[in-house]
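User: Just a sanity check before I run the rest of the batch. Below are the structure tokens for the first item. I only need the designed sequence back.
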């Protein structure tokens, strides 16, 4: 647990108050563990109740969305926006549409986002929103009506300098288009109050690729710094064949790696000769689930209907890019036993605390999501700059800036882990401390 009596007290209070929010408590515990040393050294943190404040969202908006399905039946969904922290910039973070969305998941994501956004060095606060509405199996018109109903409530709480949402699980270009379209109609101005928009609607080139590409740029830095190596000839496995996973695969291949396994909820596919990522991207244009269709085109590949089998495939590098808590202790053990020495999180908190501990004990190089998947929100920040200044940057310009940002994020995590832990590869602690410092200093400057 924690050394600091202050943190023990704050976390005990929080655990009691939110005992039904396991994901949120898991995310908070990890950050508090990392800042334990800081709290002991810097009495201003306790004196100003920084930790009590930083673990409590500044505002939460909960609302009902009613919409009419194609058969004329009225449907009800629950929705919310968690505006967690605005110390360093306007609230910023994605919107998730998935049946699993609840307060615990929204709060954990918004909390993580606060530190992730801080690491990008851009002026972005932390937020997250979503609904238990699942676009899977709904028609285009149903999705549009739902998105319009969602914005009819949320529009009053967002704005270009107040809160700028984006996509996340279940919210892609189509959903962002409908959400932003409705927002623009109500506000009667082109403010860019949404990122990851379609290019023609003011989106940024390179945003769709940003999280996956950024993840690979971060891994490149890890390989270079800790092993004096590159992606060349590395065997990579990737969970999640959506936006993040497929783009990470594309970049890893471009950098010389061999992506030998990939999964989605329909199963996993393994091919030592390398996965045909162009096929996956093509199938994704018309299907949200693609892996169970892959073998028809490549009968020589091995298919398993169990997505977690991916963690048993021997590899050098594992990139979990699907969702939270997808690597449990068993999978971590299988990865280590099969020679995996580097894990970097493309999704938010895909590794459970037990799996994390196991990786650490077995010297697996670990790139935490807050840092490793910050490329998406970083390019969202660049999209905001382009919208605010009425500019359109080229793909190369954006990609180059993204590359620079990911290198800088790695450097900050690496330096913080050396300075505060004396262990250069403890990027979890490094990311948490570096992310926390900026938010904490800003809160201190702004008073209570
Ligand atoms: N949902 C993404 C994330 O988890 C992107 C958020 C954004 O672009 O605002 O970081």
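Assistant: Here's the designed sequence for the first item:
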């Amino acid at each position: 647990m924690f050394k600091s009596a202050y943190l023990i007290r704050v976390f005990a209070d929080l655990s009691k108050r939110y005992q039904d929010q396991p994901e949120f408590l898991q995310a908070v515990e990890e950050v508090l563990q990392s800042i334990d040393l800081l709290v002991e050294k810097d009495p201003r943190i306790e004196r100003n109740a920084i930790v009590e404040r930083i673990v409590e969202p500044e505002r939460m908006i909960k609302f009902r969305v009613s919409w009419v399905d194609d058969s004329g039946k009225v449907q009800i969904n629950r929705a919310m926006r968690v505006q967690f922290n605005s110390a360093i910039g306007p609230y910023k973070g994605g919107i998730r549409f998935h049946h699993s969305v609840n307060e615990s998941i929204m709060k954990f994501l918004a909390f993580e986002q606060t530190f992730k956004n801080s690491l990008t060095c851009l002026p972005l606060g932390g937020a997250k929103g979503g609904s238990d509405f699942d676009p899977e199996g709904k028609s285009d018109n149903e999705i549009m009506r739902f998105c319009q109903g969602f914005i009819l409530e949320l529009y009053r709480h967002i704005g270009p300098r107040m809160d700028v949402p984006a996509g996340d699980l279940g919210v892609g270009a189509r959903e962002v288009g409908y959400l932003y379209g409705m927002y623009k109609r109500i506000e009667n101005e082109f403010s860019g109050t949404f990122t990851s928009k379609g290019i023609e609607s003011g989106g940024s080139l390179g945003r769709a690729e940003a999280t996956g590409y950024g993840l690979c740029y971060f891994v490149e830095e890890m390989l270079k710094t800790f092993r004096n190596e590159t992606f060349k000839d590395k065997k990579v496995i990737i969970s999640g064949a959506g936006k993040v996973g497929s783009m990470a695969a594309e970049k890893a291949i471009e950098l010389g790696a061999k992506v030998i396994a990939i999964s989605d909820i329909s199963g996993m596919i393994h091919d030592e000769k390398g996965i045909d990522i162009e096929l996956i991207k093509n199938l994704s244009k018309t299907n949200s689930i693609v892996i169970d269709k892959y073998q028809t085109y490549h009968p020589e590949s091995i298919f398993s209907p169990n997505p977690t089998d991916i963690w048993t495939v021997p590899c050098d590098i594992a990139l979990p890019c699907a969702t939270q808590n997808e690597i449990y202790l068993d999978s971590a053990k299988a990865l280590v036993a099969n020679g995996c020495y580097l894990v970097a999180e493309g999704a938010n908190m895909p590794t459970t605390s037990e799996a994390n501990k196991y990786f650490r004990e077995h010297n697996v190089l670990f790139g935490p999501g807050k840092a490793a998947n910050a490329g998406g929100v970083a390019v969202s920040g660049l999209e905001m700059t382009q919208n605010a200044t009425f500019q359109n940057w080229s793909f190369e310009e954006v990609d180059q800036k993204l590359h620079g940002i990911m290198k800088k994020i790695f450097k900050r995590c690496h330096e913080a882990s050396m300075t505060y832990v004396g262990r250069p590869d403890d990027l979890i602690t490094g990311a948490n401390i570096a992310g926390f410092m900026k938010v904490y200093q800003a809160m201190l400057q702004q008073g209570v």
